[in-house]
Amino acid sequence: MEAIAIISIFVLAVFVGFEVVSKVSSTLHTPLMSGANAIHGVILVGAIIVAERSSSTMELVLSIIAVVLATINMVGGFVVTDRMLEMFKDKNRAGK
Amino acid sequence: MEAIAIISIFVLAVFVGFEVVSKVSSTLHTPLMSGANAIHGVILVGAIIVAERSSSTMELVLSIIAVVLATINMVGGFVVTDRMLEMFKDKNRAGK
Amino acid sequence: MNSFLYDIIGLIAGVCFILSLKGLSHPRTARRGNLLGALGAGIATVIVFFRADEERASSSNLYWILGAIAFGVLVGVPAARKVQMTAMPQLVALFNGVGGGAAALVSIVEYMKLGASASTAEVIATVFTVVVGCVSFSGSIVTFLKLQELMTTRPVIFPGGRFVIAANLVAVLAVAGWVISALGTNPLLILAALSLLFGVLFVLPVGGADVPIVISLLNAFTGLTVAASGYVLQATLLIIAGTLVGASGTILTRLMAEAMGRSLFGTLFGAFTAKPQDSGGAAETRPVKSGTADDVAILLNYARRVVIVPGFGLAVAQAQHTVRELADLLSAKGIDVAYGIHPVAGRMPGHMNVLLAEANVPYEQLSEMDEVNPTFPQTDVALIIGANDVVNPAAKTTPGCPIYGMPILDVAQAGNVIFLKRSMRPGFAGIENELLFDPKTTLLFGDAKASLTKVVSALKAL
Amino acid sequence: MNSFLYDIIGLIAGVCFILSLKGLSHPRTARRGNLLGALGAGIATVIVFFRADEERASSSNLYWILGAIAFGVLVGVPAARKVQMTAMPQLVALFNGVGGGAAALVSIVEYMKLGASASTAEVIATVFTVVVGCVSFSGSIVTFLKLQELMTTRPVIFPGGRFVIAANLVAVLAVAGWVISALGTNPLLILAALSLLFGVLFVLPVGGADVPIVISLLNAFTGLTVAASGYVLQATLLIIAGTLVGASGTILTRLMAEAMGRSLFGTLFGAFTAKPQDSGGAAETRPVKSGTADDVAILLNYARRVVIVPGFGLAVAQAQHTVRELADLLSAKGIDVAYGIHPVAGRMPGHMNVLLAEANVPYEQLSEMDEVNPTFPQTDVALIIGANDVVNPAAKTTPGCPIYGMPILDVAQAGNVIFLKRSMRPGFAGIENELLFDPKTTLLFGDAKASLTKVVSALKAL
Ligand SMILES: NC(=O)c1ccc[n+]([C@@H]2O[C@H](COP(=O)([O-])OP(=O)(O)OC[C@H]3O[C@@H](n4cnc5c(N)ncnc54)[C@H](OP(=O)(O)O)[C@@H]3O)[C@@H](O)[C@H]2O)c1
Ligand SMILES: NC(=O)c1ccc[n+]([C@@H]2O[C@H](COP(=O)([O-])OP(=O)(O)OC[C@H]3O[C@@H](n4cnc5c(N)ncnc54)[C@H](OP(=O)(O)O)[C@@H]3O)[C@@H](O)[C@H]2O)c1
Fold this sequence. Notes:
Number of helices of chain A: 4
Largest interface: B-C, 84 and 114 residues
Number of strands of chain A: 0
Radius of gyration of chain C: 26 Å
Bound molecules: NADP nicotinamide-adenine-dinucleotide phosphate
Distance between the termini of chain C: 76 Å
Strand content of chain C: 5-15%
Oligomer: heterotetramer
Shape of chain A: flat
Number of domains of chain C: 3
Order of helices and strands of chain C: HHHHHHHHHHHHEHHEHEHEHEEH
Distance between the termini of chain A: 50 Å
Number of strands of chain C: 6
Order of helices and strands of chain A: HHHH
C-alpha cells in the first residue's frame, strides 16, 4: 500500500479515536479503558501471521508466545470488560 | 492507490464526518451547512487538473466552466459563512 | 514538487477541513473553523499548480485557468458580501448547485480523456458523479428560485407527477447502465440531461418550508460527487473532503429535519402522499379583530409577562433594533420579557438568533421552543412580529397541510395574542392561520418596523 | 480467500472496533459496544486463517497456533471471570502488558524474517514497536505489582534516580539508532532488554494513586505499537485498530488525569520534583476519639442530612449491601441521605458506582463530588466508610505530598465526621490523614461490614 494511503488512514483513525471517546463520563473510564485494551489484543492477527511464516524454532517459539499473550489480552479483556458492565446494566435498571 | 486503501479512507472519513458534527446546536445549522458547502468547493482542484490536461477545445471550455463554478462555490461559500458568523461573535460578546 | 510531499500537503489540507467542521459545530470556535476551512482550500488550490505531473508542465492552459479563477472570485465574493441577511439561504443553495455542476463537468471531461481506457470502477464513479452532480445542480437552482420567490413556494404537483418522476428515474438508471456497459461520451451527455431534469422534478414537489432540508441534502450529495471524482482523478484530498461533507451533510440534514419535526421521507415525498390543499379563500371574509398601536401598548403595559415571537417578517422589516427598544422599555417597567425562538423561524435555521444578536439582544432573553412553550399559560401577551407558520395551529390540527407535524410555538395558550403583519396573507407555507380569527387575537396591520415604532411611542406616552 | 474480500472483511472488523469504542462511551450502549468489539476481534481472528498467502497454505505450524490460542483462552477467561471486583484494575494492567509484549515479539520475529530486506521505514516501525511494546509490558507488570500490593504503592525513588533513568533513555535511543543504521537481530534484543528496564524505571516513581492514569497511558502506547506492527505486516486492520486505541487512549488518559485533578506531566514526573515525605510516625501517638456503634447510631439518628462517603475499604469489606440497608433505614426515618462519590474512590475510576449499583442503590442518591461538596455545610453527619485519601485535607494543605492538588470531598465542613476503618493506617497514597485527629471526628474501628451491621442493629434498637 502506498505511504500516503497509510498515513491518511492513520490520520483519519486518530480523529475517529479522538472523537468517539471525547464525551465519555468518568463513570465509564475504566470499562472504556478495558475495552480499548481488549481491542488492541487484535495483535493476535499479527502473531498468527508471523507464526504461520515461522521457519526456525526460535521464530516459532517467540511467535507462539506472542499468540498466547495476545489471546490472553484479547479474550480476557473482553470478558473482564463485560463483567464490569454487567453491573452498569443493573444500575440503569435501578435508575429507571 | 489500492482499492482497499481508498475504501478504508472513505469509511474512516465517513465516521469523522458523522462524529464532528453530531453535537451541533440548531443555531449553527445554517453556518455549518454553508461551511461544508464551501469545503466541497475544493472540487476546484479537480477542475484545475482536468483543465490543465485538456487538449480539445470542447474539453477546455467545459473544464474552464468547471473552474469558474468551483471557484464561485469555494470562495463565495467561505465569505458568506464568515458573514453569517460575524453576527455570532457579537452574540457571544453580548452574552458574556 | 515531489509527489509524496504533494500528497502530504494535500493531507494537511484535509486535516484543515476536519478541524473546520469541528470548529463550525461550536459557537465559540465557529468563525475560526470557517477560516481554517478557507486555509485548507487555499493550500489545496495553490499546491495543485506545483505538483509533479508531466501533462501539467506542458500545459498552455494555465492562463485560461488563472483567468477563470479570477473571474470566479470576482463573481463569488461580491455576491457573498452584498447579499442581504434574508437572502443568504438561496445564495448557499446556488453555491452548492454550482459546486455540483463543477463536479459533474470535471467527471465528463475526465471521461472524454480516459475514453475506453477507464476501468469499470472509474466508469461507475463517473456515472455517479454526473448523475448526482447534475441533480444537485438543477435541484439547487429550483430551491434558489423558490426561496427567492421567483416561483411559488408551495409544493408543485401536476397530475401524474409521480409517474413522470418514476419514468425519469427509470430512464436515468437505464442510461447509466448503458454508459457503464457501452461507454461513449454521447450517452453520458444524455445521462446528464436526464439527471438535470430529475433534479428539477425531485425538488418541485417539496413544500417551501422544507427547502432548507433539501438544500442540506443536496449539499451532502455534492460532497459525495466530489469524493467520487476524487476517485476518478486519484486525488486523495478530494476523496477525504468530499466524504467529510457527504457524511456531515447527511447528519446535518437529519438534525435539521428533526428540528422542524419532519421526517426526511415526508419532506421529500410528502407532497405525493398528501392531498393538495387550497388555502380556503372563503375564510378570508371572516371578521378579524384589528387594533391600533395604542391598543397594543395598553395590552403590553398591563402584562406581567410578554413573550415576543419573531419571524421572517421581522427580518424583512429590519425591525430587530426597534424590537429591542420595545423589550427594554417593557423590562424597565418590570415586565418579564422573553423571546420565543422557533428553530425554523425566518428563512434559515438560526436566522432569528443571528438577527437578534445583531441588535445586541442579550443571549439569556432568547428562549428555545421547548423552554418557552410551557410558560405560555402564565404569559399575558404573546407578541408575534412577522411570524406566521411557526405559530400556526394547523401544524397540529390539519393533517396533510404542508407544515403538519412541525412543532409550533403554543401562543394560543397565552392570555392575549397580538400579530404584527401587513395583511391577511399567509406565511411561507402558504396556508391560512386560524389563529388570526381567534377572539383573543388582535391584529396590528403594517410594516413591522413602522408598527413597532408606533407601539413604542404609545407606550412611552402612557 | 480472495485478497480483496479478505481486506474488506478486515475493514468490517475495524468498523466494529469504532462502533465498540463509540458504544463504550455511553452507559446505555456500553455493554453492546463491548460485544461489538469482541465480534470484530472474532471476525479478524477467524478470517486470518483463510487469507490467500502462499506461506500460509504450506504452514505446518497451524496446530501449534491453535493450541496456543486455546491455551490463551484457558488462561485469560478464568482469570477475567474469577477476579474480584477490587482486583480488576490490576488485571486490566496485566492484559495490557501482555498485549504490548505480544506486539514487541511479533515485530522481533518479523524482523528476523525480513532481515536486510526490510526498508528503513519498516525498521523504524519495528524499533518503535519493540521499544514501546517492551516499555508497556514491563511498566504494566510494575503497575500490577503496585496495585496488587505485592510491592509498595508509594513512589519509589532512589538517590540519583533521575540520572539512571536519563542514562537508560539515552541508551535506548542510541541502540535504536544502531539497529536502524546497522541492522541485526542481536542489537534488537539488547534494545528490548533496555526498553524493559526503562518501563520499570518509568513506572516505579509514580505514586500509587496515579497508577490508573499510567495504565491508561500504557494502554495507548500498546495501541500505537499494534499500529506500527500493522505497518510492518501490511495489515490495514492492525493499523486502524491500533491507531484507534492509541488515539482514544490518549484522550482517555487526559480525561482521567483531569478527573483526578492531576496534570499528566505531574503524574509521570511529579516524584522527581517533589520532596519525598515520610508519613510522620510521631503523629500516630496523638489522641483520637473513637466511638462505639451505639454512639454512631445516635449521631445518625438525630441528623437531618447524612452524606455517606464510600471508599476502597467498602469494596474490600464487600459492605455495599449493608450500606444500602443503613441508608434505607435512615431514609425511612425521614433523614436525607446521599452518597458522595469521589471520581477516584476505590481502585479504578467508577469503582464506587459499579459497587453501589451492584447493591441496587438508586442512581439518584449518588452525587458526584461537585454536586455534594457545596452541601457539606448543611450536612450533619459525614459517614466515611473505608475511604481515606479522597477526604484527606492534605491534598489541599500539604504541597508536595502525593495527592497534593487532587480535589477532595470536603467532609470537614460537615457537623460531624465518622470514619469506619480498621486501624490508623493510612490509605493508598500512604499519607497520614489529619482529619482523623480532628475533634469533630469519631472513629469506629473494625471491618466496614461488621461495623455497619452493628450500627444498623443499634439504630433499629433506638
Ligand atoms: N428557518 C428556516 O430554516 C426556514 C427556511 C426556509 C423556509 N422556512 C419556513 O419559513 C417559515 C418561517 O415561519 P415564520 O413564521 O418565521 O414566517 P412566515 O410563516 O413566512 O410568516 C412571515 C409573516 O411575516 C409577515 N411579514 C412579511 N413582511 C413583513 C413586514 N415587512 N412587516 C410585517 N410583517 C411582515 C407576512 O405577512 P404579511 O405578508 O401579511 O405581512 C408573513 O405572514 C416556516 O414555514 C418555515 O418552515 C424556514
Ligand atoms: N479510583 C481510581 O481510579 C484509583 C485507582 C488507583 C488508585 N487510586 C487511589 O486510591 C485512593 C482511593 O481513595 P479511597 O479513599 O477510596 O481509599 P484509600 O485512601 O485507599 O483508603 C481506604 C481505607 O479503607 C480502609 N479499609 C481497608 N479495608 C477495610 C475494611 N475491610 N473495612 C474498613 N475499612 C477498610 C483502610 O484503612 P484501614 O487499613 O485502617 O482499615 C484505608 O484507610 C486514592 O488515593 C486514589 O487516588 C484510585
